[in-house]
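WARN retry 2 of 3 for item q-0093 after timeout on previous attempt; input resubmitted unchanged.
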Amino acid sequence: MQHLYISWIVLLLIAKAHPFFISLTEIRFNPNSKKMEIAQKIFWDDLELALGNEFKEKVDFLNPKDKAKLDGQIREYLLKHNQLAVNGKSLTLNYLGYEVEEDAAWFYIESSATEIPKSIEVKNTILLNDFNGQQNIVHVYSQSKSPRSLLLGKGEEKGKIEF
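OK item q-0093 returned
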C-alpha cells in the first residue's frame, strides 16, 4: 500500500515538473445568424507569454496598464492564429471579447455569414511557437449535439471535417 502512495506522489511531481500545454476551441454553426460562433479556452498565463513574445513587451493579462491596448493585442493575435473555411470558402473572423475563468479565459469570435456547413477547415496555430508539445483541441458542432473533433499541433496546424 505504501508503494502505491509513493507512486502517486511521484506521478504528481512529474506532472508538476512537466506541464502540459493545451487549448480548447468550440465551433458552432448558428442557423439563425448563419454565422460560425467560436469560443476558445486558453490558459491566460500561456497567452500572456505568447502575447509578450508576439509584441516584444511584457504583458500583464489580469492587471493591464492599458486594457484597450491589451484587447487590441488579443484581437490581433487570435485573428492571426485562427482561420476558418466553410465548404471551401474562407470566412472573415471578428473578435468579440473575452471573460476570465480562474486560470483560463474564454475568447469569443464569430465569422461572417455562411451557408450550412458540409465541410469545415480549421487552422489553429495558437501558442504553437511558444510551447513545445502545445496541442489545440477543436470541437465542431453542426446540426447535431455530438461534436466532431480535431487535435492540432506543430506540423499539423490544419484539419478538415466533413458532414
